[in-house]
Write a structure and sequence with these properties.
Length: 115
């Protein structure tokens, strides 16, 4: 279904009332195949919603380890901060996702970032 919508010309960067794109929502839900399709059709990784969160922030906050790896492999930047100054690492820690925290540190995320 997603492929049909994308081929028909659906706008991948369209944002809802909270500023989330389809990529934000797919990443937050852990829908790997949909994320692949959206990126194939030009969805940008660094779009921030109204709270400043990227798809990576939402995937990390939700504890979706495979999704976080995929987004980083596609080029998501670890140091992007939301409007509260939090990175994906901070949100993973706040959510109690200790394995995710370790993974993000292994990928090069730093504990302290400059504002």
């Amino acid at each position: 279904m997603v492929s049909k919508l994308l081929v028909a010309g659906s706008r991948v960067e369209l944002q809802n009332d909270e500023g989330n794109t389809a990529l934000h929502l797919a990443a937050a839900g852990g829908y790997r195949k949909i994320v692949d399709k959206l990126i194939d059709f030009g969805s940008r990784l660094e779009v921030q919603n109204h709270k400043g969160n990227t798809a990576l922030h939402l995937a990390a906050a939700g504890g979706h380890s495979e999704m976080v790896s995929k987004l980083i492999d596609f080029g998501s930047r670890l140091e992007v901060q939301n409007h509260k100054g939090n990175t994906a690492l901070h949100l993973a820690a706040a959510g109690g996702h200790s394995e995710m925290v370790s993974k993000l540190i292994d990928f090069g995320s730093v504990l302290e970032v400059k504002k």
